[in-house]
Amino acid sequence: MKKLFITAMAPVLSMFWLQVAIAAPDRIVTADGSLTEIVYALGDEARLAGVDTTSNFPVEAKQLPQIGYKRAISVEGVLSLTPDLLLTTEESGPPKSLNQLEQTGLTIQQFSAAPTIDAVQAKITGIAALLDKTEAGEKLWQQVKTKVDAARARTSDINDRVRVMFVLGMNEKSPIVAGNNTHAKSMIELSGGVNAVTGLEGYKPITPEAIAVANPDIILMMARREHSIAPNTLFSQPGFMLTEAAKEQRLISMDGMYMLGFGPRVGDAIEELSQRFYPLLADAEPAQ
């Protein structure tokens, strides 16, 4: 079996295994946008033979051959690109497709999909080791870490933190919101906010009554046609109209991959989101 699992808990060990196990590949396919961004950030995009549909940054990545959505990888699409290596995360799949690809002899490297800064480090240093660019990977990680630390320092002394509700989408019956163990909750907290939704795991529907009780100060959404909604429409909906967010018309929309991808732009995303949570931070000096 040629799958090597990389976890956020042991980036140094993972790098060692990567360096020992395989030579730098010539043709890579990525099945997660954050992995694609890392390959570009390391300057090795020429190795990319194909990407998944979440790989929308940089814009050049969208011009590469696609293998489908990361959770619904096309086996035929991957094999048609004759890659040496498939980069995946725990969110990539389905397992049946990955097993079929393994059986062909394709090497698959899997990274943690956890919404943590440690997982970002593991992805950056792990991919850098694969590409025989360990030094460049460490430099990139230090740049990312510096941005994350600076962004978090700006909100470290805030006591009255905004309550934020992330709305994934509006279905016919109930909005889908982010509860515990989600990328959205992690990003809200990294940016100095508090997740207004409690008692839910994952992304789940919520009733208008529960929205009113949660009473978020801000509604956060992805800036995509199928997920976003105009403020006047959102805040006229049952439940939402009774919130502090409705009173102040505070709806924030951001690109989903940028905000929730946990790739090399994570520090920039935390900085931008924290400033939108707390507009007065834009001109403030970082905490020492």
Please give the number of β-strands. 11
Distance between the termini: 49 Å
Average pLDDT figure: 91
The SSE order reads EHEHEHEHEHHEEHEEHEHHEHH
The CATH superfamily label of the largest domain reads Nitrogenase molybdenum iron protein domain
CATH architecture of the largest domain: 3-Layer(aba) Sandwich
CATH topology of the largest domain: Rossmann fold
Number of domains: 2
> Rounded to an integer, what's the Rg over CA atoms?
20 Å
| Poorly predicted tracts of residues | 5-21
The major pleated sheet works out as: 6 strands, mixed
Helix coverage percent: 25-40%
CATH hierarchy, class of the largest domain: Alpha Beta
Number of helices: 12
Shape verdict:
globular
Strand residue content: 15-25%
Structural class: alpha/beta
